[in-house]
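Inputs:
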Amino acid sequence: MVLHLSSRKTALIGFCLLLANAAAFARKNSPDRPMPITTKSREVRRLLDEAWRLNLDEVQQADAIEVLRKAVKVDPNFAFGHLLLSQCSLDPAEQVQEQQKASANRSHAGPAEQLVIDWFQNAADHKLIPAITDMNEVLNQYPHDRWVVFLANWWLTQQMQYDRAVAVFERSGITDSPGLMNNTAYTYAYMRQFDRAFALMEKYVAALPRNPNPQDSYAEILRLAGHYDQAIKHYRAALALDPRFYSSQFGIADTYSLMGDEKRAREAYRIAFQKFPSLPELHLIQWQTREATTFVREDDYAGADRAFQAIADRAHAKAMSQVEADTYRQMAMYQPEQKRALALLDKAEAAAHKGQNAMPFAIQQELAQVLRARVEAAVKMSNQKLAKSALNRVADMAQRSDDKVIENAYHGAAGAVLFSQHKYNEAMSHLEEDSNNPLSLRLLAIAYQKVGYGSEAKRVGETLANFNDATLEQAVVVPAFRKCYQDPACDGNFKNAALKK
Amino acid sequence: MKAWRLALLLGVVGLACSAQAKQLAVITDSANSTTNLTASELVKIFSGRTASWPDGKAIKIVLRDPSSADMQVAVRKLFNMTADQARAFVRAHSDVIVVADSDDAVIHLVSSTRGAIGLVDLYSLTKGVNVVKIDGKLPVEQGYLLKGN
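Outputs:
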């Protein structure tokens, strides 16, 4: 680099042009046409509209999947249809196959649809920058297209880019789409902007007063905000509208579990499974996992082992490698005996390496999660050598990847190791990067307290105490933390007694 | 229920509280052949000590308002100033630094101006610009300079 002072005058002239250019850019009108859909079949177009209504507005996901299956059967070259099916399928094998078909049929799609296919393929291949540029390209071309807006809102939320996800919705000018209201309300809830989430939920309920999903979503968002009793009322309202809306039946059980009433939760799960014996595979596993988690909340680890093992066995029998791996990983997380935890993590890793019926990126994410759990187990055993070895492996994965889940797993693991070495300042910078995980939040709250950042410790403590997502991590960390947080007698060094589970 | 909740990944911790740290991408116009800058070269450009590219083309800097939340990591690591100091610096160098009101505007200006360099959020990137590595790293890589809140 060379310094050329004489270039100043040229720069000044250039800048007059630059500023004029900026004004012209600001005046540019946004296009408002929909993204062209490439199919010769009118039936496919009709089915696509039906899929939108079922999938987005009413969230009848199983029905929507059937409609999309019909669409790609009518037009097997309908690449955009294959892509949508790959993303919303509840069958891991179908997800993989449909993603491949979307790419294989890319040449049959129009330019904008090709951008969407490339975007999701790049995302699946861990090529984040091309995925982002593809997304923005198609968003710039079709900022008001409902499918583009939905896909961008959904993908950005997955990427934890909540502000941006909301901005896509707000800039779209689409105010009458119940499906977009629903998903955006969830994004606000993840940002803990519950007033905005509730306002959108009111509009969603008003838009589809006879549909159960608005009530179901309202219930879930109320639950995320900690309003359990109101959540149950809305779940019941959804079931009154449609007794077959199984998400609400299970939602009641999930809510009892988060409330700490595990016996009642299990009874509610039992009734729900009896009432709905043929759930889509991933929904079945989701709620079986939550039912198993009720035992963890009661510290009944033998009961939890039986329930989780049954899920792992089913996943193994159905060759669902990621599900099997994730189930063993979750089992490892609550084990009081760390040797047993490590043995379970060996099983998790072996299952993940089989890679059956799972997207390659999902397997990599799972492996990173397993390594992170291995670090946690090693730290509990005070085995720094083992912790370092697992940390190096997940660090290597993060180095070679641009995947947020893998990166977060690395930061969570690094934070846990540094915290165990009492290197709180260094730990904090890693734990802050994994701030959606209760395991990291707990350590972060203590680390802030240790270094004297009282207000930050309080903020993180409040976030953790109000963490109402029905995950195993929540079950392992939050109830104990909350109990101490609310107990005036439990106050030593940021309620360390509760934090040391 | 939210549409597509379970579509991709099962079991990974839910989304529940806060967003990730911002990553700023360094962008140039697509005709610029510079693909990598060291951190110190970048600091020299943003402090005005380097005013041209190796091919002699004058450097034009395009930024968001230095006091905006998105720019704080750049203010700290490139200007080594407070937000107010950075604002004053930008005002004093208005012949070479322009403040745009959005990432889209930054990208538009950089893509249409030979010799321009700009900073945008990673998730604002579009195809019309080059992304420059810093010390051999892209924004998505571990240890990237312009990452943080």
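Remarks. The CA atoms of residues 32 and 98 of chain B lie 19 Å apart. The longest strand of chain B covers residues 22-29.
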